[in-house]
């Protein structure tokens, strides 16, 4: 079955993007839980990825949103292979922004391995693949990810799949990453195969420095040149952009929203 077309949501500012994506994420978790299922969400690091978690925390403190933390499982799309308590850890940043403020059972929070837990990024990547499989339906490699969040670097990388490295073609569901052009050098990432198994993939990118790669991603650049252009969710792929990162993008034929309606 082919995925729906890519949807592009363009909002005035990065603050709007963060708030809109946070509200949409909480709404999707609630929808899944209302169906009687446990929601599986894949988190991302990066500026907007962490900011939207802080906005989700603020929304949950109001009556505007609610969720059942016991029926939520959290995963990561990529992680820095450094000590677990390092400020560089996507996990640590996510915990500080949101997770430490929810009563999510520790067994439902699936962090990628750190350098004090594993000798090499390869071992951490293999262990994460095994963990994913242990939570997957019988005979499958991955849980059903309801929403998988991604960011994009100014160089066009997403998760820790960097351009010009061939990592976007990595096999399996996880990969070790070395010599990352953006520090820290050693990382663990989901592969494109794992990313594209998600029901919905949402990519948030804001700021003028991202505009050139957003334009190339949306124009269908080669995956190894602009990895962020490659992900496709099974049901939906949605870009959240501010006007600065959208630049002249939002090409004809794509669904573009510039108003403030919640199209989640
Ligand atoms: O290193 C990383 O960078 C990307 C993008 O980060 P940003 O700060 O430019 O938004 C992020 O998506 C990824 O998770 C992270 O490990």
Automatic annotation (TrEMBL):
Gene Ontology MF, one: 6-phosphogluconolactonase activity
One GO BP annotation of this record: pentose-phosphate shunt
Protein name per UniProt: 6-phosphogluconolactonase
CDD domains associated with the record: 6PGL
Organism: Falsarthrobacter nasiphocae
InterPro entries documented for this protein: 6-phosphogluconolactonase_DevB (IPR005900), 6PGL (IPR039104), Glc/Gal-6P_isomerase (IPR006148), NagB/RpiA_transferase-like (IPR037171)
EC numbers, comma separated: 3.1.1.31
Family according to the record: Belongs to the glucosamine/galactosamine-6-phosphate isomerase family. 6-phosphogluconolactonase subfamily.
Gene3D superfamilies in the cross-refs: 3.40.50.1360
Keywords, in A-Z order: Hydrolase
Region annotation Disordered: where it falls in the sequence: 244-264
Recorded metabolic or biological pathway in which this protein acts: Carbohydrate degradation; pentose phosphate pathway; D-ribulose 5-phosphate from D-glucose 6-phosphate (oxidative stage): step 2/3
Superkingdom: Bacteria
């Amino acid at each position: 079955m082919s995925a729906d077309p890519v949807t592009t949501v363009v909002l005035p500012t990065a603050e709007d993007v963060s708030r809109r994506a946070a509200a949409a994420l909480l709404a999707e978790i609630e929808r899944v839980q209302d169906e009687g299922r446990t929601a599986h969400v894949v988190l991302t690091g990066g500026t907007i990825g962490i900011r939207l978690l802080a906005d989700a925390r603020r929304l949950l403190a109001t009556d505007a949103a609610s969720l059942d933390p016991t029926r939520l499982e959290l995963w990561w799309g990529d992680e820095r292979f450094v000590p677990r308590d390092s400020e560089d850890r996507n996990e640590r940043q996510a915990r500080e922004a949101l997770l430490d403020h929810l009563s999510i059972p520790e067994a439902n929070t699936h962090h990628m391995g750190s350098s004090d837990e594993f000798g090499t990024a390869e071992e951490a990547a293999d262990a994460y693949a095994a963990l994913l499989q242990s939570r997957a339906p019988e005979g499958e490699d991955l849980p059903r990810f309801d929403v998988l969040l991604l960011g994009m670097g100014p160089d066009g990388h997403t998760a820790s799949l960097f351009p010009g490295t061939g990592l976007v073609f990595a096999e399996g569901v996880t990969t070790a990453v070395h010599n990352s052009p953006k520090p820290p050098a050693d990382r663990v990432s989901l592969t494109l195969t794992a990313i594209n198994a998600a029901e919905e993939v949402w990519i948030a990118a804001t700021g003028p420095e991202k505009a050139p790669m957003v334009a190339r991603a949306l124009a269908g650049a080669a995956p190894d040149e602009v990895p962020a252009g490659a992900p496709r969710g099974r049901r939906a792929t949605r870009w959240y952009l501010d006007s600065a990162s959208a630049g002249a993008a939002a090409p004809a034929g794509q669904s573009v929203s510039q108003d403030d309606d919640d199209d989640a």
